[in-house]
Amino acid sequence: MRNLQVFFMAMALGVTATGYSQIYAGGTNNDVDWANLTSGTQCQITGQSVSEASNQIDWQRTWNKLTGKPGETAPRVYDFTRKKVVVITLGRRDSGGYSVFVTGIRRGGGGRWVIDATERTPAPGSYVNRRPSTPFTVVTVDKMASGFLLNLSQFEPQPGYDDGYGYNNGWPNRPTNPPITGNPNDNSSPVNWSNLTSSVRSNATKQELVVARTANDFRRVYGNLTGQNGMIAPGNIDWTREMVVFVTLGSRRTGGYSVFVKSLRSGPNGSIIVDAVERTPDPASFVSQGLTSPWTAIKMDRTQARILLNMDLYSQ
């Protein structure tokens, strides 16, 4: 990584009294609780900026200015008494393949707080969408931190690089063993099941298994997990004969982690055991240095049996 050497006054979003931010040189560390909330590559803010939102009203206004979407669609923040939202935008880039993520938040001088963030640029020769992009990222931060300075570094991946997120701009993925999905056709399974959806980002803070037996429960769990409107949750579920099981890992310090269901088997007293696997990064691999919180969901035959979780660890 190389620190950008240009110092500037960053544009504020104009919905909170954050003033301005500057690029601030230094290393990375974590001196305050924070978590990723959401990110994207298209927003309405065309300049580089850092902005805070300290309550639900400010957050909804910020989300509307950032995305053009109604404030009510903003990812949910559960406790504004303890947390605030911080939005970082990169400004306009001439193509796709750019993104930004936070790697750490630490104390700076003069009572200020430094956000260490990284701009990821396209690898030379990689295929990217030629449409201009405006990358952004949003994190929640403990309210004790305020007056943010931005330390922005730049990382240019090489062809073949896998950041653990599955978005490789057309580059080949590193071989993985075991496969990242299970075997729903395993004859030893007591019920039929299949993979539904998964991601490496969520609001989950711990390892957990959650069962959704109705469409309403499914939308509620999906919305709480992803921070998105539950109405956009994956469909194609026959609730008269199917249900959904979510498995979450909780927070991980970097990219490169994922979770998948390997198999289902009969357990004690008529229960069903979900055998899941946490996949960890290869020690020699490059991974994104932002927090992740992997999860997966499967759909399976409806049953009133007790569902248990057995988690195995696979390290490459």
**Contiguous uncertain segments of 5+ residues:** 1-28, 160-180
- Number of helices in the DSSP assignment: 2
Our Rg estimate from Cα atoms comes to 21 Å
Number of domains: 2
Output the strand order for the largest sheet. 1-8-6-5
Shape: globular
What proportion strand? 25-35%
Task: Provide the fold topology.
Blueprint: E1 2-3, E2 34-40, E3 49-53, H1 56-67, E4 83-89, E5 99-107, E6 113-120, E7 136-142, E8 148-155, E9 193-199, E10 208-212, H2 215-226, E11 242-248, E12 258-266, E13 272-280, E14 295-301, E15 307-315
Parallel strand pairs: 6-8, 13-15
Antiparallel strand pairs: 1-8, 2-7, 3-4, 4-7, 5-6, 9-14, 10-11, 11-14, 12-13
Any overview of this molecule?
This protein is mainly beta and 316 residues long. It folds into two domains: 154 residues, no CATH class; 123 residues, no CATH class. It has two helices and 15 strands. Strands 1-8-6-5 form a four-stranded mixed beta sheet, with no helix packed on it. The protein has a four-stranded antiparallel beta sheet with strand order 2-7-4-3, covered by helices on one side. It has a four-stranded antiparallel beta sheet with strand order 9-14-11-10, with helices on one face. Strand 12 and strand 13 form a beta hairpin. The longest helix has 12 residues. The protein is globular, with a radius of gyration of 21 Å. The two termini are 25 Å apart.
Record keyword descriptors for this entry.
single chain, 316 residues, mainly beta, four-stranded mixed β-sheet, four-stranded antiparallel β-sheet, 34% strand
